[in-house]
Every structure is written in structure tokens, then in C-alpha cells.
Amino acid sequence: MTYSDDRATMIEFKDVHKYYGDYHALRGINGTIKAGEFFSLLGPSGCGKTTLLRTIAGFEDISSGVIMIDGKDMAGVAANARPTNMVFQSYAIFPHMSVAENVGFGLRKDPRSKEEKARAVAEALEMVGLKGYGNRAAHALSGGQRQRVALARALILKPKVLLLDEPLSALDKKMREHMQVELIKLQRQVGITFILVTHDQEEALVMSDRIAVMFEGEIAQLADPETLYRRPATKKVADFIGTMNFVPATILSETGNAVEVDAKGLGRVMLDIDQAPAKAGESPVVGLRPETLTLLYDDQKAPERETDGVIDEVIYFGDMTYYDVYLGGTDVEVRLSMRNVPGRPVLDVGEKVRVAWSPSALVLFR
Ligand code: ATP
Q1: Is the shortest distance between the CB of 46 and ligand 1 below 6 Å?
Q2: What mean pLDDT comes out for the span 258-263?
Q3: 125-170 pLDDT, tens per residue?
Q4: How far apart are alpha carbons 261 and 284 in whole angstroms?
Q5: In angstroms, rounded to a whole number, what is the distance separating the alpha carbons of residues 75 and 72?
Q6: Strand runs labelled E in 166-242
Q7: Where would I find the ABC transporter domain in this sequence (predicted)?
Q8: In CATH terms, is domain 9-230 a member of 3.40.50.300?
Q9: Nearest CA to ligand 1 atom 5
């Protein structure tokens, strides 16, 4: 992880609201994005992530609140006067121009000499892995190459912040995964702030230093990928990022730094306060990631806790097997990698098993 918290603030949102007519698209956005950070806005369709990105770019006005970029209030500052540049989903490259003309397009009013501009274009192309492609016709490029041209065209203007609106969504899976790695490398190389909009949680987890998870115009949680995964702030975040089992629970007692709960099927368990963020309004449930559970074979002992169960369902994927296990009053999914159980047979529905779990992997939602 390259992210460190002592970086300077690049963008700050202070209670940002956006209305489209009566529709309340952004509902009080607060938070900061650091200089040099790879930051993602993640959420389902319609949550407001593109709107938030466009307000940073200056393509959308905000209804109230403040957006600061690099220490300056952006109220009334036009898009072309902001230190930002956007790469669009549709790439928006000009098919009738060459690659070099596309990349140099933003420099047409730049006072530098022709040679200097050509050098800048060559540098930008090299940066995105398209060295020597300058004279090619843009319309003859593949999807991934067009994406690189669009990136080079944005980077040549040396923005402080690069805004990326679902830049990889038009690519096939293999090319998308390849470009994810390329984008991470590029961001580290140029060191500027990247802000990516995506609805793909895996993409956000792989690429980002930090992620803002958005639902219905609000940021539900802003954190690094590991915290989002291990300590989701709400059930909704937990469900959106990966898969989580939810087990009904009763809160038995609470002290300053620990909460004791009775979780259905699992029994009594003590949780640290950071596993039980206080959020009123949900009926308490305990969350367990399927990957943190395992099945015990023969006389294996659980390192921490274990619970008896019966297999309800088996889904076999070759390298992974998913089991639904009934634990008396509740079902949990257990995901086993073959690496963890080499040579073990796949178990059948109806077999009795013991499920091993770790109290530190639980999260209480309340
Ligand atoms: P998607 O992934 O589908 O693009 P999103 O999270 O980026 O979704 P936004 O495009 O930010 O969502 O839209 C948020 C909400 O605001 C949606 O309900 C959308 O219909 C609405 N909206 C966006 N732009 C406008 C507009 N120009 N006029 C009216 N409503 C709009």
C-alpha cells in the first residue's frame, strides 16, 4: 500500500449538495482526497458518483457546500480553469486524426514550439505504452489502445487531478484486467491524484488507495480497501463489497471497549468496539465473511472457536467449493479453497461438519 495519511489534501468536500430540479442527487458529501492518491468513487447505478466527479471537473454546478481543489474554492471557476482533466468512458478520441494529433489536441493553443510539442506528445505516448504509435490513424486502434490515447491526451496537459469516468467498462474482461494494472503503474509513475468512478467493487479494491462507497447521494464509508472489506461500516457496504453472512444477534452487555453478543448458532462472543461500530437503527446482526470460515476434518481442532452444523447445499467450482451450513437457527456460507484442504473429498448435503471461526473476524451491525 503506497497510501500514507500525511499527504497534502488535494480535494476537500464540505457538505456538498446537488439538486437536479427536485431530485436530490448529492446529499451532504464530506471528505478529503489526498495529493497523489488513487481514489475511487464506488456505488451502484444512480448513486451519484458520476455527478460527484463532474462537480469536481466543473461540468456541474453544486447547489450548496464547498469544493476546494489544491487549497482553492472552486465556486465560479470554469472547468477549463481547474487543475483537473477528465478521461471519458467513450474515450472521445477523434477518429479522423492520427494518434499524435489526438494526443497533441489540447496543446493547440500552447505557445511552445512545434518541436517542443512533438516532444511532449512522444513523452505522453511513451508513458502510456504507445511509443512509436504517433503516425497511426486513430480509427484503426483497438479498444485498449484508444483508452491509452485518451489517457495520454489528458496527461499531456499535466493536470493535478485526473478524473476517470468508468474508463475500462467498454473493454473485455481480459483487457480490463490488463489496463487496471497499467493504470496503477501509470498513476505511481506520474504521481498525480487519480479519481476513478466505477460500479465494479473488485476493480475499486484492486486499484485504489482509498474508496468512497456511495449509496443514494451519500458516502456510506470512506476507507482503504482492507478496512472496507474487514470492517464495513454498514450492512449495505458489507453486502456491496464481497459477500457476507449475516447472523441475528442479541447484545448482552457493553463496556467502553468491548461488546458481548449472543449470535444465533454461534453462541456468546466478545467483540472489540471497532468490530461493533455504533450505528443505531438496524436490528443487530453479526457479519462473517465466508472466506474467514473453514470446515474441520477428522480430529482437527479449531484454533479459536468451532460450531457443529449440517451441510445444506454444495456448489463446486473446481478450485473452490461453497458450502451452505446450517448452524441451528441460521445458515452460513463457507468458501473453501482446494489449497486449504488438499486431498479432502468434497462433502455431501446432509453431512455433519464442524465450522471453525474466529471472533476477531466478526463485525456487529446494529
Ligand atoms: P451510473 O453508474 O448509472 O452512471 P451514477 O452513480 O454515476 O450512476 P449519476 O449519473 O451521478 O449516477 O446520477 C445520480 C442521479 O442523478 C440519478 O438518479 C440520475 O438519474 C440523476 N441525474 C444525473 N444527471 C442528471 C441530469 N442532468 N438531470 C436530472 N437528473 C440527473
Answers
A1: yes
A2: 94
A3: 998 889 999 999 988 888 888 888 988 998 998 899 999 998 888 7
A4: 9
A5: 9
A6: 193-198, 210-215, 218-223
A7: 11-241
A8: yes
A9: 46
Q: How far does Cα 213 stand from its chain's mean position? A: 7
- Calpha distance 228→234 (Å, rounded): 10
Q: Are both 9-230 and 243-366 of the same fold?
A: no
What does the block give as the cell for 275?
468490530
Range 243-366 classified under CATH 2.40.50.100: yes
Ligand 1 nearest atom to the CA of residue 60, by list position:
27
| Chain centroid, CA 136 distance in Å | 35
Task: Tell me the domain boundaries of the chain.
Answer: 9-230, 243-366
What ipTM goes with this model?
0.96
Q: Report the C-alpha gap between 366 and 364 in whole angstroms.
A: 6
> Residue 50 CA: which ligand 1 atom is closest?
7
43 lines ligand 1 (CB under 6 A): yes
Residue 250 CA to ligand 1 centre (angstroms): 39
Output the pTM of the full model. 0.89
Confidence check: pLDDT of 289 > 70: yes
User: 108: which residues sit within 8 A by CB, 6+ positions away?
Assistant: none
> How far, in Å, CA of 274 to CA of 259, rounded?
10
End-to-end CA distance of the chain, in Å? 31
Question: Of 192, 166, 161, whose CA–CA distance to 12 is shortest?
Answer: 161
